[in-house]
Amino acid sequence: MQERHARFIEGVKDEPLGISSAPEPTRDVTEITLYTQDHPGLFARFAGACAVLGMNIVDAKIFTTRDGMALDMLWVQDPDGGAVQEERRIRRLEDTIRKVLAGEILPPDAIEQRSRRQRRADAFSVAPQVFIDNDASDAYTVIEVNGLDRPGLLRVQVRALLHAAAGRELRLMFPLVSSVAEFTAARALVDKELARLKKFGKECPAHLEIGTMLEVPSLAWQLDTLLPLVDFVSIGSNDLLQFLFASDRGNPRVATRYDFLSPAVLSFLRHIVVKCREYGTPLTLCGEMSGKPLEAMARAGLGLRRISMSPAAIGPVKMMVRSLDVSKLETFMDGLYGLPDRSVREQLASFAEAHGVAV
């Protein structure tokens, strides 16, 4: 970043005002950099120009050089919480900044005019709701927050979790991650909040682990890059399978299109298990495929050793596990992954019957 800013300053040092915009889509922000002669009220006008267009400021840095020049940076999001990427919108933003700094636009007047144009979302009230569920998983507390999206919402949630876990152990898991870049952006946000706690002398969690839910298939093909960065992985089987088969599990007309025990699913999960074992990354699985003895038996044959299920399923699955020779099952399943069959349910059921496995 410092090198980029140095090149920017070198390119505009002979101009009265230099403005540079750099979209960062993976962080959902656009960095706006301003270089000009410093004077009182400069930063306030800079921020006011962003407010005129309804931009949300999520971060800022201010520097003044020894020769009295200001290097100010704002990281902004559009009103929908995304980065400003289109060239047309970037030009409009930069043009507005120039006009505000030149006194051609007065932010209070422009903002008042803009506020008169009521957005549809403002026509009704949506009260935020928070649900805490300790029964959904035997390993985690599930916290669900419903409400209108807004910039900084995730950061506020992370800040609250870090405060609540002061001096205690905390495990954070990010869901629906589709790329490594998304995870690194989320982890950077946590690191920023940890730095904030230390800066203000607040107690941090005694032990912090950060992992990801694997439920988007694209992430499975980035495991060599992802696994060195995470402390654990949890497979979200319900969403993973509907995305893998492009089939809505909530639609009864297509919900039975796929089988948990198809060679495609087993091979896909086996790939994840092998990679996590290679990197020594703890792996768990949750979802419907864990709660039935035959499906749970197949997961054991894949190499999964930690699965979550509803309390009612524990007894039957425990009985299955106590009657199972896993090494024999693993050898048997080596011959199933490459089959063209829609499902290998019958083959697994026959194995269980032949070896006295209680399914």
CATH architecture of the largest domain: Alpha-Beta Barrel
The SSE order reads: HEEHEEHHEEHEHEHHEHHEHHHH
C-alpha termini separation: 58 Å
* Sheet with the most strands, sense and barrel status: 4 strands, antiparallel
Whole-number total of structural domains: 2
| Subunit organisation of the chains | single chain
- CATH level 3 topology of the largest domain: TIM Barrel
Which CATH C-level class of the largest domain is it? Alpha Beta
Which word captures the global form? elongated
Q: Report helical residue fraction.
A: 40-55%
**Unreliable segments (pLDDT under 50, ≥5 consecutive)?**
none
Give the rounded overall mean pLDDT. 88
What is the radius of gyration computed over CA atoms, rounded to a whole number of angstroms?
27 Å
Q: What is the number of E strands?
A: 10
Beta percentage is 15-25%
The helix count comes to 14
